[in-house]
C-alpha cells in the first residue's frame, strides 16, 4: 500500500466546502462521506477530510483557530502554470481568497496561494522538473 496523507480540516458549512473543493478539481469519495464529514480526493495518495466543527471536536479538545490565523500552509502540485492560475482564480470566484500571499515566480517554479471558505491556506505550485539538474 502506498503511503497516503489525509489532511483533516474543520469547516463551518460542509456542503459549501464540498462544492468549493469540487470546483478546484477534488473528487468526493462517498465511502468516507456522511453528514459530519466528507472525503475530498486530490490524487491516489492525497485526500482532504472536511469535518464539521462537531465532528472535529471528537478528535481533539484543542480550539479551532479563527479564520484570520494560520497554523499551516499546505501545497498542492499542479501540472502547469495555467493550472496554478486557474485553481487560484477559481478559489477566489467561489468564496475563498485568491493570492492571500504574494505570487512567487522563480522561472522554474511558480506558485500562488489561496484560502478556502474557512481560511485554510493552500499553495498551488508548478515546478519545471527539467530545470532540476541531477548533476548536483
From TrEMBL:
InterPro entries according to UniProt: Glyas_Bleomycin-R_OHBP_Dase, Glyoxy/Ble-like_N, VOC_core
Pfam families noted in UniProt: Ble-like_N
Matching Gene3D superfamilies: 2,3-Dihydroxybiphenyl 1,2-Dioxygenase, domain 1 (3.10.180.10)
Sequence ranges assigned to domain VOC in this UniProt record: 3-127
Protein name (database record): VOC family protein
Source organism per UniProt: Saccharospirillum mangrovi
Amino acid at each position: 500500500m502506498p503511503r497516503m496523507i489525509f489532511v483533516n480540516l474543520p469547516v463551518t458549512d460542509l456542503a459549501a466546502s464540498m462544492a468549493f473543493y469540487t470546483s478546484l478539481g477534488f473528487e468526493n469519495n462517498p465511502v468516507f462521506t456522511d453528514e459530519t464529514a466528507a472525503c475530498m480526493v486530490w490524487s491516489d495518495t492525497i485526500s482532504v477530510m472536511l469535518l464539521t466543527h462537531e465532528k472535529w471536536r471528537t478528535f481533539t479538545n484543542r480550539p479551532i483557530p479563527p479564520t484570520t490565523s494560520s497554523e499551516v500552509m499546505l501545497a498542492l502540485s499542479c501540472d502547469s502554470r495555467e493550472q496554478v492560475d486557474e485553481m487560484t482564480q477559481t478559489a477566489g470566484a467561489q468564496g475563498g481568497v485568491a493570492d492571500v500571499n504574494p505570487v512567487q515566480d522563480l522561472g522554474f517554479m511558480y506558485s500562488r496561494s489561496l484560502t478556502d471558505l474557512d481560511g485554510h491556506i493552500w499553495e498551488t505550485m508548478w515546478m519545471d522538473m527539467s530545470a532540476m539538474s541531477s548533476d548536483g
